[in-house]
Design brief:
Layout (H helix, E strand, L loop, with lengths): L3 H8 L15 E7 L5 E7 L1 H5 L3 E5 L24 E2 L5 E7 L2 H9 L2 E6 L6 H6 L8 E5 L2 H7 L2 E9 L11 E6 L5 E5 L4 H12 L6 E5 L14 H14 L3 E4 L2 H7 L6 E9 L5 E13 L5 H10 L10 E9 L13 H19 L3 H7 L19 H11 L2 H14 L3 E14 L8 E8 L5 E5 L8 H13 L6 E3 L2 E2 L14 H28 L7 E4 L2 E4 L2 E6 H10 L5 E7 L4 E3 L4 E3 L3 E14 L5 E10 L7 H19 L31 E6 L24 H14 L8 E2 L3 H8 L12
Parallel strand pairs: 1-12, 8-30, 10-11, 14-15, 18-19, 28-29
Antiparallel strand pairs: 1-5, 2-4, 2-6, 3-5, 7-15, 8-13, 9-10, 9-12, 11-20, 13-14, 16-27, 17-18, 17-24, 21-22, 22-23, 25-26, 27-28
Bound molecules: pteridine-2,4(1H,3H)-dione and dioxothiomolybdenum(VI) ion.
The site of pteridine-2,4(1H,3H)-dione has 12 residues, from helix 9.
């Protein structure tokens, strides 16, 4: 079944911020930002710009009525720079003008002088200088020192992991309409309406109830709008307050790429110890996270890295150290996976390295070490309903791993300049915000007296289909046609204190709240139906296909009739409900607890094909067994899985962020930053739904889907690496992602003498 949003999207009927009809007199704001990565502001001259016809106001930090502070977890981020700048793209002033072209023209008339300071863009260099966002964090289990003494194999290495640009189709932006008495309404392209509301209140010196944030939908987000939609919305709100006129602020693509943060690059040291029968008994890992110039969500992201240090494996002795390093780059931020993907690439690199040196296939080591029922995660949570091995074995069987390996080795034996490589990638991803507090949601349900339904939750639709899932839930409980149900915009006045739509949890948290709201009303309606039908046992009343049944007997009472009758009899047709995930907690002092409601499992088998003359490659196949629980909507879930896989492969292969030594983004356009396109889709992509998986924590036993499948993309790195080894067996891999075509070419010919005349 096609979702209601799909229809709107393909017909161009969906409204994004930039499509909103705006009131006449709306001003346009643009942002003047730092051109250097680190320095003191010596002089800021706005006079020429101010004199330009049509410029209404130029705002600096001095005009802020409240606090010049938008830091969410840590208060270290000013909305507008005061006396120093710490990254290229840091906002300094807001130019508010009658229209966009005037505000852009005025921006060019602003002059600024800096006293430049040393620039640090590298996480390890920042660490050496003692430039950390917070003190190092350490998670541990067992005793790595004694375990390393018992190990038969020990390997140590370094891993480098690149960042990733979100590239949501809709850039950051907001429209703000001022109301009476300082009340303002913000339309923001944000994943976190309450985050925006709170930050705006702080900066404007208003109460939260004076600010209404409304979000109809986002044109993509991927984590990039969990925290980083905030500054633009707050700037527009500030401009609206100071001018008492509506204000629109939308970043163009170049500005967005330059000014916003990305997925965090990490540099990592590890040491891994195995027994002679390939059991991993010790893992010592130190992460250097490149946080950028302020905290943003970096500490939470680093925490999730620590949680996922051992991916889908049971390792009895682990020590993981996380360093969040402050550099002169735009603050890096949430991105689908939230630190989990970086952790998984490291443990997979360690296993791959061990396998290469020992001389076995990596998947032999992977399989032996998979997590089992009752094992403990090293942060103290007992593993329950573990599907790690189930997915692995199902993938071997369904996709005939043995036959595949045979075909690949035959292919490689008979081809000299094209090689194939295979890799398996198991995943285990914890579901719940790692900050337990955030695992709450509410739903507001109205049934109008014509029988149509309106639903508000905290979930933000960003193309992931959460609205359709909410419709599915209500339609299922009331057993009515989907066309009777409407999902309203996400709005802080209707649903307060919302957690951001993030952590793959929006459908779980809001869906569970919605189930409670629907059931409350259903009970009310059943009691009323029992009255009408003059029966005592309302539990025998069933709502089915828009009709009312008593036991098996269909009654002369339709959905519309029972609703009208309830209204006439003065029965409330509205319901509000709250859900908080039970049984989760985490003690940040002892670093133990039960942070996740459950885990999502799966295994991917990825085959690459590398052109060994050119260094180019393609993914020939990606075949996955994924644990969806009991899917709420298989088509949406499949779409999420496929999209995430491609996004993950992009991160590991072709998406390469580059800055110069002065902290200036070089990959600042779509011609220098390549993301996957239609030609990147593997010829053979199959996602098999694991059978017999149920989840007591998900709505109707479903599991979260947003982030976990992204991490299958990590397998692409190793599939390419293994193909390279077929061509150049003595290649020394440096475990540096992404493995671009250029890097592939260099690795193919690393230390390799080749006489092309001899090649067939
Ligand atoms: N956002 C967040 C997230 O604030 N906390 C999390 O644990 C998280 N996990 C994944 C993605 N976004
Ligand atoms: Mo998050 S990475 O905004 O789910």
């Amino acid at each position: 079944m096609i979702s209601s949003d799909t229809r709107k999207h393909v017909r161009g009927n969906s409204i994004f911020i930039d499509d909103m009809p705006i009131p006449t007199g709306t001003l346009f704001a643009s942002v003047f930002d730092s051109s250097i990565a680190h320095g003191k502001i010596v002089k800021l001259d706005l006079s020429k710009a101010q004199q330009l016809d049509g410029v209404v106001k130029i705002i600096t930090f001095k005009d802020i009525p409240g606090e010049n502070q938008i830091g969410n977890i840590i208060a270290d981020e000013s909305l507008l720079a005061e006396d120093k700048v710490e990254y290229v793209g840091e906002p300094v002033a807001i130019i508010v003008a009658e229209n966009e072209s005037i505000s852009k023209k005025a921006k060019k008339l602003i002059t600024i002088e800096y006293e430049e300071l040393p620039v640090v863009t590298d996480a390890r260099q920042a660490f050496k200088l003692g430039s950390l966002i917070v003190p190092p964090r350490i998670f541990e289990m067992g005793n790595i020192n004694s375990a390393f003494e018992e190990a038969d194999f020990i390997f140590e290495d370094k891993v480098e992991i690149g960042g990733q640009e979100h590239l949501y189709l809709e850039t950051q932006g907001a429209v703000v309409i001022p109301g009476e008495c300082d009340n303002i309404k913000i339309f923001s392209s944000t994943q976190g309406p309450t985050v925006v509301q709170k930050a705006a209140a702080r900066v404007l010196n208003l109460k939260m109830h004076q600010i209404e944030v409304d979000v109809l939908r986002l044109g993509g987000a991927f984590g990039g709008k969990e925290d980083q939609a905030t500054p633009w919305a707050v700037m527009a709100a500030l401009a609206a307050k100071l001018t008492a006129r509506p204000v629109k602020l939308i970043l163009n693509r170049h500005d967005d790429l330059r000014m916003t943060g990305k997925r965090h690059p990490y540099s990592v040291d590890y040491k891994i110890g195995l027994t002679k029968d390939y059991k991993i008994i010790a893992f010592d890992v130190t992460y250097f996270q490149n946080a950028g110039a302020c905290a943003d969500l970096s500490t939470a992201i680093l925490e999730r890295t620590l949680f996922h240090a051992s991916n889908s494996y049971f390792i009895p002795n682990i020590k993981a150290v996380g360093n969040s390093c402050k550099t002169n780059l735009p603050p890096n931020t949430a991105f689908r996976g939230f630190g989990g993907p970086q952790a998984m690439f490291v443990i997979e690199s360690a296993i791959h390295k061990a396998a290469s040196v020992i001389g076995v296939d990596a998947h032999v080591i992977q399989k032996i070490n998979l997590l089992h029922e009752g094992d403990f995660f090293y942060y103290g949570q007992k593993a329950e309903r573990v599907n790690a091995e189930k997915c692995w074995i199902a993938s071997e069987k369904i996709f005939d791993l043995q036959q595949k390996e045979k075909e690949i080795s035959e292919f490689n034996a008979s081809h000299e300049l094209v090689k194939k490589g295979i890799a398996l990638m198991p995943i285990c991803f914890g579901i719940s915000f790692t900050n337990s507090m955030l695992n709450q949601a509410s739903a507001l349900l109205h049934i109008y007296n014509d029988g149509s339904i309106s639903i508000s939750t905290a979930a933000v639709e960003m193309g992931q289909g959460v609205n359709e899932k909410m419709i599915n839930i209500a339609a299922r409980i009331f057993s009515i046609n989907k066309s009777k149900i409407k999902i309203e915009s996400t709005n802080t006045t209707r649903v307060a204190n919302t957690s951001a739509t993030a952590a793959s949890s929006a459908a779980d948290l809001n869906g569970n709240a919605l189930i409670i709201a629907c059931n409350n009303l259903l009970i009310r309606l059943k009691n009323h139906a029992a009255n009408i039908l003059k029966v005592n046992d309302s539990e025998k009343i069933i709502f089915k296909n828009e009709a009312i049944y008593y036991g098996d007997e269909k009654q002369k009472l339709s959905w519309e009739e029972i609703i009208t009758s309830a209204y006439v009899n003065r029965i409330s047709l509205s319901s509000q409900a709250f859900y908080a995930t039970p049984n989760i907690h985490f003690d940040r002092n002892i670093k133990k607890g039960n942070p996740f409601a459950y885990h999502v499992y799966g295994t991917a088998i990825i085959v690459s094909k590398v052109d060994c003359l050119r260094g180019t490659y393609e993914m020939e196949s990606v075949e996955v067994v994924h644990d969806f629980g009991k899917s709420l909507n298989p088509l949406i879930d499949l779409g999420q899985a496929e999209g995430a896989i491609i996004q993950g492969i992009g991160w590991m292969t072709i998406e390469e962020l580059k800055q110069d030594d002065n902290g200036k983004l070089l990959s600042n356009s779509l011609s220098t930053y390549k993301i996957p396109d239609i030609y990147s889709i593997p010829k053979n992509m199959k996602v098999h739904f694991l059978e017999d998986s149920e989840n007591p924590y998900g709505p109707f036993k479903s599991k979260a889907i947003g982030e976990p499948p992204l991490m299958y993309g990590i397998g692409a790195y190793f599939a390419i690496a293994n193909a390279i080894k077929e061509f150049n067996p003595h290649v020394a891999l440096n475990y540096s992602a992404p493995i671009t075509h250029e890097k592939t070419l260099m690795l193919l010919y690393q230390n390799k003498q080749i006489n092309l005349d001899e090649v067939k």
